[in-house]
Amino acid sequence: MTSLDGLSKVQLDEGVLRITISTADNGTSLDGEGLDQGTRALEAVGDRIGSVLLVGEGPNFCAGGNVRAFAAAPVRSEYVAEIARVFHAFVRALDAVTVPVIAGVHGWAAGAGMSLVCLADVAIGGPGTKMRPAYPSIGYTPDGGMSWTLPRIVGIARAREILLTDAVLSGDEAVRLGILSRLVGDDVVQDEALRLARTLAAGPTSSYSGIKTLLSASTTRTLAEQLDAEAASIAVAADSPIGREGVDAFVEKRRADFASIKEVRA
């Protein structure tokens, strides 16, 4: 991997934008520098990426905010507000991308870490992965969009229970609830997440974009409205370079070469 414009915690390789959201420093708490670099990269790379990969470096994906720093701040409200501003700028940039977002979730994903897992399109964990909202334990309320994403994943009633009781979720339970997509061996979580991110980065990017757009809008549309949107979207896809290549490859009984089309476009 090579660094992107000198940003040490953001790297671009084979179409995968890899963002380090925590390090072993400060107990794998949320890394403000990584978030800021991630936001800048997401806003700058455009068509250069085919997927986004969120990872933590250390024993955990992300153990949440740096609570010791909260306690040491001269004015806690101002300090936490600034952390939330940086975090939410990253969340907005991540939500705006049209390519798949993958999270490799090893160890703990607590607080802000769990919020980021809920934002991913595909989140891969291991048997040792654990998740916890963590906000009530320090008398805080959620950030990073958890109060918006979690009910949409597990339902409002279960979201209430998880948040109010500050529930600890095992990897198996997180998969059952749909927060994690699947489990692999603890020692290969990041490898499998990277493999998937590379596979998706080489895939039909415009198709993925259309899928994400349709899914996002489906929550506020009637079935009739969604059918109209699907019809319009699939018609556009049929005459796009990606759509033409996919159909032609199927008819010609060969593997579709979506990557070369994206290279020409770029």
Structural class: alpha/beta
Would you identify the CATH architecture of the largest domain? Answer: Alpha-Beta Complex
Q: How many angstroms separate the termini?
A: 20 Å
The first-level CATH class name of the largest domain:
Alpha Beta
InterPro entries: ClpP/crotonase-like_dom_sf, Enoyl-CoA_hydra/iso, Enoyl-CoA_hydra_C
Pfam family, one: ECH_1
Family: Belongs to the enoyl-CoA hydratase/isomerase family.
Protein name: Enoyl-CoA hydratase
List the helices and strands and how they pair.
Layout: E1 2-4, E2 7-13, E3 16-22, H1 32-45, E4 51-56, H2 67-72, H3 76-96, E5 101-105, E6 108-110, H4 112-119, E7 122-125, E8 130-132, H5 146-154, H6 156-164, E9 169-170, H7 171-177, E10 182-183, H8 189-201, H9 205-218, H10 223-238, H11 241-251, H12 258-265
Parallel strand pairs: 3-4, 4-5, 5-7, 6-8, 7-10
Antiparallel strand pairs: 1-2, 2-3, 8-9
Question: Main attributes?
Answer:
2 domains; 7-stranded mixed β-sheet; 266 residues; globular; alpha/beta; 16% strand; 10 strands; Lyase 2-enoyl-coa Hydratase, Chain  A, domain 2; 2-enoyl-CoA Hydratase, Chain A, domain 1; single chain
Description:
The protein is globular. The chain folds into 2 domains: 2-201, 2-enoyl-CoA Hydratase, Chain A, domain 1 (Alpha-Beta Complex), CATH 3.90.226.10; 205-265, Lyase 2-enoyl-coa Hydratase, Chain  A, domain 2. By secondary structure, it is an alpha/beta fold. α5 (146-154) crosses α6 (156-164). The strands form 2 sheets. The chain has a 7-stranded mixed sheet with strand order 1-2-3-4-5-7-10, with helices on both faces. Strands 6-8-9 form a 3-stranded mixed sheet. The chain has helices at residues 32-45, 67-72, 76-96, 112-119, 146-154, 156-164, 171-177, 189-201, 205-218, 223-238, 241-251, 258-265; strands spanning 2-4, 7-13, 16-22, 51-56, 101-105, 108-110, 122-125, 130-132, 169-170, 182-183. The model has no long low-confidence stretch (mean pLDDT 94). Pfam families: ECH_1. GO terms for molecular function: catalytic activity. This is Enoyl-CoA hydratase.
